[in-house]
């Protein structure tokens, strides 16, 4: 197994190959981000403490923090996950990754020196690799040089030398980010003023809309009330018209009934003679011979009762129904 060991204090890293499995046994069954003593690697590593930062198995699949297994799993990864770099916006992909537990199937194990030991490791702790670029953010420049907010950060920018043969030496400085200048403060004041204007404008528009909505609601309510009143007037007019028509029909019905009664009374012998004789109300000899007035009065009473039952009573019931 190969060990890729780095030392952040000097910026150096070194790849060593370890064939003795007894030296590697101290790393087995350990998780990522676990701090382990490096004494079993040799006498020169006495006192060193390293942190397991990752590794790759023999097929090249990387270890992923949080996957508590020895083997490989396939996970659906998206932007922000380790072991995956999306090629398109919002892209997700199922990738094979290895668990975060160390075993003998790894080809490379990445280690970071947390605490330096007694001796120097050649090529790792005995030399320093300078940083190629200095800090670019204003707060980090202040932190590096221990500056206060009143100090000018632009004088402490780490400049990169650009030297060419036969030309004048010059340097290049990066643009400082998050630097507070009068222009930045002016832009901030302008943004705040625009925000206040938008807020005021939105309030005025909301008030105008509320007034217009109340006006339209009132108009719609008045229109609805007018329609209801108009319907009530029309319904009352129809009711009065139908009532007058029914009373007129009832009056004309009474007149017609009287005329029919007179006509039936006058032509009794031709209109109802057979029916009255069939019902036994009249005798056939009562119209030809009138032996006495008592018999004639009885026949007239029977005729009146039959006329009332057959003609007058249905007309009266019909008039009463139309009035109600």
From TrEMBL:
Keyword rRNA-binding: no
Start and end residues of each stretch annotated as Disordered: 218-242
PROSITE patterns given in the database record: RIBOSOMAL_S6E
Pfam families per the UniProt record, alphabetical: Ribosomal_S6e
A cellular component term, taken from the record's GO annotations: ribosome
GO-annotated biological processes: translation
Keywords noted in UniProt: Ribonucleoprotein, Ribosomal protein
UniProt similarity note: Belongs to the eukaryotic ribosomal protein eS6 family.
Protein name (Swiss-Prot/TrEMBL): Small ribosomal subunit protein eS6
């Amino acid at each position: 197994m190969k060990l890729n060991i780095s030392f952040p204090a000097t910026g150096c890293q070194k790849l060593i190959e370890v064939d003795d499995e007894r030296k590697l046994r101290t790393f087995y069954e350990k998780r990522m981000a676990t701090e382990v003593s490096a004494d079993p690697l040799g006498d020169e590593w006495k006192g060193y403490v390293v942190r397991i930062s990752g590794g790759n198995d023999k097929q090249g699949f990387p270890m992923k923090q949080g996957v508590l297994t020895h083997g490989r799993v396939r996970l659906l990864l998206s932007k922000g996950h380790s072991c995956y770099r999306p090629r398109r916006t919002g892209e997700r992909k199922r990738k094979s990754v290895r668990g975060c537990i160390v075993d003998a199937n790894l080809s490379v194990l990445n280690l970071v020196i947390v605490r330096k030991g007694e001796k120097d490791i050649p090529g790792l702790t005995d030399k320093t690799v300078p940083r190629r670029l200095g800090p670019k953010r204003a707060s980090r420049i202040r932190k590096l040089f221990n500056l206060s907010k009143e100090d000018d950060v632009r004088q402490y920018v780490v400049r990169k030398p650009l030297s060419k043969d036969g030309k004048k030496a010059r340097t290049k400085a990066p643009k400082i980010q998050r630097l507070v200048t009068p222009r930045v403060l002016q832009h901030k004041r302008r943004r705040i003023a625009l925000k206040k204007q938008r807020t005021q404008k939105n309030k005025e528009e909301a008030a105008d809309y509320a007034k217009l909505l109340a006006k339209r609601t009132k108009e719609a309510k008045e229109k609805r009330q007018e329609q209801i009143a108009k319907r009530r007037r029309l319904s009352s007019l129809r009711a009065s018209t139908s009532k007058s028509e029914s009373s007129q029909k009832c009056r004309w019905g009474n007149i017609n009934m009287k005329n029919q009664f007179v006509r039936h009374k006058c032509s009794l012998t031709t209109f109802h003679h057979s029916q009255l004789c069939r019902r036994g109300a009249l005798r056939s000899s009562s119209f030809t011979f009138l032996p006495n007035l008592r018999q004639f009065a009885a026949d007239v009473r029977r005729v009146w009762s039959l006329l009332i039952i057959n003609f007058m009573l249905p007309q009266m019931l019909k008039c009463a129904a139309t009035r109600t």
